[in-house]
Amino acid sequence: MHRRHALAAICSGAALPLLPGCAASGSAPTATAPAAAPAGRVLRAGVHTTAAAGQAQLPVWAYDGQTPGPVLRLRRGEVLDLALHNALPDPTTIHWHGVRVPNAMDGVPHLTQPPVAPGETFRYRFALPDAGTYWYHPHWGTPEQVERGLAGALVVEDDAPPPVDRDEVWLLDDWRLDGHGRIAEDFYGFHDVSHAGRLGQRLTVNGQVEPTLALQAGQRLRLRLVNAANARIFALELAGLPAWLIARDGMPAEEAVAWDGPLLLGPGMRADLIVDAAQAGRFTLRDRFGRGERVLAHVTVDGTPPGGAARPAPRPATHDPLPAPALADALAQPLVFGGGMMGMGGWPDDPLTERAARKQRRLGGSREADPVWSVNGHAHMGRHDAHPPLFRVPRGRTVRLQMANRTAWWHPIHVHGHHVKLLSRNGQALSVQPWRDTVLLSPRDTAEVAFVADNPGRWLVHCHVLEHHAGGMGAMFEVT
């Protein structure tokens, strides 16, 4: 069933008369009042002690007592109906990273919903317009809450997925532990915020150190990778087995691309791969970003591969096309990212009066960063709704974002509520222009993306190095 048919069937159902996501026309979801029926499930965010990051008893914040949280699996066109119950000591929300949700379901405190206070519950309910690999995490105190363990994968199944024998999610993360083997509580430190972000010394896959996935010879695996780290960029290799990239950020590739070199995956980004267990042995997933290499996980293949020719390359799933950007009439909007240490300018203003006020807030228990990053010269600090929109655009018009990284650091730029088409890098048009929701910019890099602003509401665009956003690298735009 195509997405438009699935959504039509859902929206016409008498049992769901108030379903968010049922627009009168077009593909953009719109928010309406929630139905009175009980939520389909309750997801509890609370404080737990669990085996994770190589520690037998690690105090974490977790969804349903799991680190990472449970993998939520639904089909395209189905309704995600979930009540978040907050059993944490702090407020929280859930942001559905990469999903084109109605604005009221986006999980951004004060901008799209009230923060969920301790002891309270908030219901998320929306149809899932796109298949793919997504994830969920808080958008309140994000550098701390994600680092403490609040993250989980959301898998929206394809209508006709490429046939595989196994379908596995690997959520990649790193943990900074103190001398007692607990999560180091040095959140929002100036060095982390102004440099590469918070990097942990303990790398994990699904919360575990160097786990092993056992396959039988001849099996075909779909491996869904999610980078849930605060700041770490991975350059991933799995040598020795035939493998192909079939999707990025939930969007299927036009054709499968051989995975035969480092695969860059910045914070917030996802990649779907097909791996063939073509020979027996032990194979290692390694990260080669920056200096040296780090081991993440292993794949063992047992048995004798079946005879005959090698399996053909997989075919990515088909996908209903997203609205094509109309570039001739597009609203051109520059996004200049500045600030940070060793930068070329762009540090935001930080008056002495504000520094003194921030010091007093911290003495009173406030956990916040210093403003060291900017978008178009402005630091996005404090409440999201306290900032005017960087730009406003009428619904249905194309936006052309001209991104320029004028800093010495990498930045994965995440756009809420929309997928964007990557048009060019460093002034060179791309022969293949893929869809993304997070665009990784290297130092001094430029990129141009475009999208049809078909999802009304106020939306964030920000760096997904969580400490960079906390230090000001973000903005808000409005689709009217």
Question: Would you summarize the structure shown here?
Answer:
By secondary structure, the chain is mainly beta.
Structural summary, described in words:
The strands form six sheets. Strands 20, 21, 23, 25, 26, 27 and 29 form a seven-stranded mixed sheet that branches. Strands 10-9-12-17-14-15 form a six-stranded mixed sheet, with no helix packed on it. Strands 11-19-18-13-16 form a five-stranded mixed sheet, with no helix packed on it. It has helices spanning 3-11, 142-147, 190-194, 352-363, 466-470; strands at 41-52, 55-63, 72-75, 79-87, 95-97, 121-127, 132-137, 152-157, 166-175, 202-205, 212-216, 220-227, 234-238, 243-248, 251-258, 263-265, 270-276, 281-287, 294-302, 331-339, 373-375, 391-393, 398-405, 411-415, 420-425, 428-429, 435-436, 438-441, 446-452, 457-463, 474-479. The protein is mostly beta strands and 480 residues long. It is 8% helix and 40% strand. The longest helix is centred in the last third of the chain and has 12 residues, at 352-363. It has five helices and 31 strands.
